[in-house]
């Protein structure tokens, strides 16, 4: 009987550990979500991209106000994917997990190739930097991004020189 109780306790502990989702399991999920996002950006698949974000997510693109909520993210990227080709490379460096929350830290490279519908003044560019993403396990069991914050390592361009004759 003691052996049966020990096996039952061990089985319950294994189920509880799996349900809690260890850091390695969550990292695997995040890496799969990132791969899905990279494909969605490259293919202009806004609905797949948006499905990775929580309803109350914040996406904080550089030099822009934050996109607050899934609908704002959807609206921005519906327009942005028409501007040209977005090619992201994401490298997860660390994932910290506490219950239903996780924080991902990584590096990115973004290559944007401007197309004919790009806004005036938006040239092709390459950016690289670091990012933090706050993930949350939602009620449906899916891990979704709640906050996405990239930080560029590329120095900002110097301000334009004033025209001759101006101070």
Describe this structure in words.
The protein has helices at 2-20, 23-43, 46-51, 70-80; strands at 53-59, 67-68, 84-98, 101-114, 125-137, 143-152. With 167 residues, the protein is α+β, with helices and mostly antiparallel strands. The protein has a single domain, classed as Nuclear Transport Factor 2, Chain: A. It has a 6-stranded mixed beta sheet. The termini are far apart.
Give the averaged pLDDT, no decimals. 87
Largest sheet geometry: 6 strands, mixed
The total of helices stands at: 4
The proportion of strand residues reads: 35-45%
**CATH topology heading:** Nuclear Transport Factor 2, Chain: A
CATH class: Alpha Beta
Radius of gyration, taken over Cα atoms and rounded to an integer in Å: 21 Å
Give the helix/strand layout.
Layout lengths: L1 H19 L2 H21 L2 H6 L1 E7 L7 E2 L1 H11 L3 E15 L2 E14 L10 E13 L5 E10 L15
Parallel strand pairs: 1-6
Antiparallel strand pairs: 1-2, 3-4, 4-5, 5-6
Quick rundown:
With 167 residues, the protein is an alpha+beta fold.
Features:
alpha+beta; 167 residues; 34% helix; 4 helices; Nuclear Transport Factor 2, Chain: A; six-stranded mixed beta sheet
